[in-house]
Amino acid sequence: MDLLKPADLVDNFTRALYKLAPYRGCAHGCRYCDGRAERYYVEGDFERDIVEKPTLPARLAADLPKARERGLVAFGSGTTDPYQPCEAVSNITGSCAELLVRGPLPPAGRLPALIMTKSALALRDLPLWKIHAAQAGLVLLVSLTSLDEDLRAVMEPGASSFAQRLGLLREFKAAGCATGILAMPFLPGLSDQEESIQRVYAAAKDIGVDFVMPGGLTLRPGRQKDLYLSCLGQFRPELLPGVESIYREARDSGTPTWEARKALESTITPLRRDSGLPFLLPHKVFGPILPAHDSLRLLLRDMIELYADRSIDTRMLKRSAEFYDSWLVAKRREFRRTRSLASSWLEDALPEAAKSGELRSLLDNPKLASFCETIILEGAYLDYVSLRLEPRSQ
Ligand code: SF4
């Protein structure tokens, strides 16, 4: 397997087992982009020296017949956009989409996909993604933190307008795709005010997206921070001293001071609760399109965040989640080592563990084990707002 190298564990953030990056660098040129940071080793000018990967579709075509593990394929990340302007000509993402939808059938079945973008160019491939949503699952994530076009023109100069992005979400939603808004990063002094965040949630509700994931700005010391502060200094110089102050600790992670993080959280929390929208890609969306073993790993990790958000003690849950991850990695490695195992072996492992009682002993938490058995054997899902189990048909 060349391109589709599955991870040992699905990624918490993207829910992906496989990642495809058709480009390196990003011409959208967001002033705050984390992809500029030195830790990603992107050489040259991040927004002009875009590296295209034209061999990606051929490599994907060669890999698909060998993909024994069903898992979500993520297009794009926080450091590149699969629908940035050069895609209009090179069509690398579009060719990969065509292959996922109509290309060689993997032994594990069609692989669901997730797209992260700030570009309305994704609409070009909507006919394909619509088919994929019905046959395997498709999730569209669009970044959007404000409705202020003047701000967008300065901070995200190459990306689609906010109105176009809302239109993109609307059309994908109408086509039967799952959709979510990555409402990050809210920019200090520019888009982190209550009224501004409220407008984003109102737009999200109006469209009916499946979730909104909010977040603040990180500024890693070096190129990323320097460029952002320089841009802010030209655009809104009066904000510069305050922003420099909250990032003065110069942490490697780029996070601002604890006080600044808490202040943003206290602005966002009531708004997101009022909205009734989950802040994580919900179990209801990923449960039906991912294998049960990966879905349960994500659910346990999400529950830690969801319960912590309600100030519920999560220590026992964390312990069980660690046990489960170790079990899953061992199963997965055994499956990869033993080529003679049927492609369904891994997908059958968790339902069998639930029926035999193995899951109960490995989680070492009877209440959680009963909850997981209901999900695995009866097809229920956890509602991320009410935190109640619901039958999957709802
Ligand atoms: S669209 Fe994403 S990857 Fe591209 S510059 Fe903006 S933040 Fe970075």
Which features would summarize this protein structure in a list?
394 residues; 10 strands; alpha/beta; binds iron/sulfur cluster; 2 domains; pyruvate-formate lyase- activating enzyme; 6-stranded parallel beta sheet
Can you tell me about this structure?
The protein is α/β, with parallel strands linked by helices. The chain folds into 2 domains: 18-281, pyruvate-formate lyase- activating enzyme; 286-391, no CATH class. Helix content is 46%, strand content 11%. It has 16 helices and 10 strands. Strands 1-4-5-6-7-8 form a 6-stranded parallel beta sheet. A two-stranded antiparallel sheet has the order 2-3. Helix 1 (56-63) runs parallel beside helix 3 (92-102) and helix 3 packs parallel to helix 4. It is globular. The protein starts with 17 loop residues before the first strand and ends with a strand. The mean pLDDT is 95. The protein binds iron/sulfur cluster. Iron/sulfur cluster is lined by residues 26, 28-30, 33, 35, 79-81, 118, 159. Residues 26, 28-30, 33, 35, 79-81, 118, 159 line the site of iron/sulfur cluster.
